[in-house]
Amino acid sequence: MRLLSTESLQSSRSALLALVKSAGQSRDLAQARRAHHQILDTDCRNDPYLANLLVEMYGKCGSVGDARSVFDSMPAPNSFSWALLQSAYAHNGHLHAAREIFAQMPERGIVCWNSLLAGLAHHGDVRESNELFTKMPQHDRFSWKAMIAAFSQNGLLESAKLCFDAALERDLASWTVILQGFTRNGCLDHAREFLEKMPLWDGVSWTALLQAFAQDGHLDQAMHVYSLIPEKDIVASTIMMQSYAHHGRPDAAKRIFDGILRDKRSIVTWNVMLGAYTQSGKLELAKEIFDQIPVEKDSATWSTMIQAYAQSGYMTRAKNLFDFSPRKSVMTWNSMVTAFFINGLFDQGREVFSKMPMQDTISWNALLAANAQNGNLETTRMIFDGLCDKNVVSFTSMIQAYAQGGHHKEALELFYAMLLAGVRPNEITYVGVLSGCNHAGLVDAGRDHFLSMQADEGIDPVVEHYCCMVDILGRARRLADAEELINSMPLEPDVVAWKSLLSACKTHGDVDRGARAARFLCELEAG
Q: Three-state SS for 469?
């Protein structure tokens, strides 16, 4: 955003308004404060309308302190001032403060009621949203929309539909909220039926349905919806490109990309196309896209290309690109650190890590995982204990370090500590847990964790999990159970599974079963 000179601002109130609105839309706090500072140097510094816009601007930028400061400086805040301050607190998660402001209001118009209701709904507080809604002296279309959204966002689609049907005023936004509820909860048939009933459609309606089909992997249906959109905007085109990229179809993504006017392509669009090629291993085509980008490259652009080179083993190219990047963000630094670590260049990775101007959780997790892979258990634990924000990656790296180092009791204890901390495990976590159970001889515990993966966490077991379970059963002489598990796998058993069974059969003298395992193993290795 280009800031105007003080002289220009003095003679142009409209320029001031545009300046504030632009800062709010960008959600850049530093930019917002610069805009505010320039306003303070003009004769419009006491303009009540501008002051209200400043409160709103700071709320959008996430700075409730600045919003409050502007509000407190207003000689006579009106009902809109109170509503905007309350909205700033509510939409930034400060619901207690928002309620206090609501209680202090000298008068409460429908705008103030709606502001608090929207804040509660936005943060998923259905019960309190409903209580507030029933207390409201009157409702307008914004009230109904907020209540529909509260139900819809929490998966209470029947309640959302009942609220929608009861609404005396329905606008396109209310219809779209219901549609998004259906798509967000995977009810695609209901979403399609609902879309057909809508009196009119806009870009948001089409995009909601398109995104639902794309995220569920229904590419043909997503493409059909995309073809029906009368005016395809950049959001719809980007969603379609991302879907093709995710499913390994970069050529299809390129066709969508080529259909977007060059001056309409944002850096996000270019990054999606770049990612489509890098994910498919087409580095030369990715480099062509990278070199063609006409707008300023962002951190994601540089990081995507650095990671692509690193994953293909081209470390010299990755390092040259990193050195050439003009403004290195934490993301760019992290991509370079990770590049060294995944290629086994531990010392170089650690050197880059030490030069980082600041580290985040991703940086420390990369260092943690690298030390774990190198068997530096004591250092790994020291890094882990020093992390303030431990996530699933942190816990999983530490669990794997214990499991690989033969400390199976500690691996399982840390897994239970992870669950108590409210961190949800992923499929990699369970590989470490099952490995720990395997080497500790905990057959029942291993089986319980294997079953819990899908029942409690919704994680479908992959080949690595089945192989761990085959090994666990084999070590415990439960060879029939191990063979049955292999034969019942929904996936094609790999060499590791049959080798584990064959090894167990040799150890425990089960000749017939071992012969069957050897036959399957030979077929796999031959074909």
A: helix
* Residue 191 near residue 179 (C-beta atoms within 8 A): yes
The answer to whether residues 405 and 377 touch, using CB atoms and an 8 Å cutoff, is yes
User: What is the Cα–Cα distance from 317 to 207, expressed in whole angstroms?
Assistant: 38
Q: Rounded to two decimals, what is the model's pTM?
A: 0.61
- Confirm if 347 and 332 have CB atoms less than 8 A apart: no
Residues listed for the chain: 527
* Token pair listed for 216: 């569920």
CA 148 to chain centre: 24
Report yes or no: 501 and 515 within 8 Å, Cβ to Cβ.
no
Q: What is the DSSP letter of 262?
A: G
Type of residue numbered 480? A
Q: Which residues contact 434 (CB under 8 A, 6 or more apart)?
A: 446, 449, 450, 465, 468, 469, 472
- Give me the DSSP letters along 485-499: HHHT-SS---HHHHH
pLDDT of residue 4: 46
The CA-atom distances, in angstroms, between 376 and each of 149, 248, 338, 364, 397 are 50, 37, 17, 15, 12
C-alpha span between 302 and 321 (Å, rounded): 8
Q: Percentages helix, strand, coil for the chain, rounded to the nearest 5?
A: 75, 0, 25
174 in Cβ contact with 164 (< 8 Å): yes
Distance CA 280, CA 293 (A): 19
Residue 187's SS3 state is coil
CA distance 493 to 525: 12
DSSP designation for 75: S
Q: Per-residue DSSP letters for 204-260?
A: HHHHHHHHHHHHTT-HHHHHHHHHH-SS--HHHHHHHHHHHHHTT-HHHHHHHHHTS
Query: How far is residue 280 CA from its own chain's centroid?
Result: 21
Closest listed residue to residue 422, CA positions, set 384, 453, 389: 389
Return the closest-CA partner of residue 270 out of 247, 246, 304.
Answer: 304
The phi, psi pair for 494, rounded to 5°, reads -100, -175
From 43, 72, 267, 363, select the one nearest 54 (Cα to Cα).
72
Proportion of the chain above pLDDT 90, given as a percent: 32
Q: Determine contact, residues 253/265, Cβ cutoff 8 Å.
A: no
Contact, 208 vs 176, CB < 8 A? yes
Give the chain's mean pLDDT.
84
Give the Cβ contact number of residue 281 at 10 Å.
Answer: 13
The CA-to-CA distance between both ends of the chain, in Å, stands at 61
pLDDT at 1: 45
Q: Which of 245-254, 468-477, 491-500 has the lowest mean pLDDT?
A: 491-500
Is residue 72 within 8 Å of 60, Cβ to Cβ? no
Residue type at 112 in one-letter notation = C
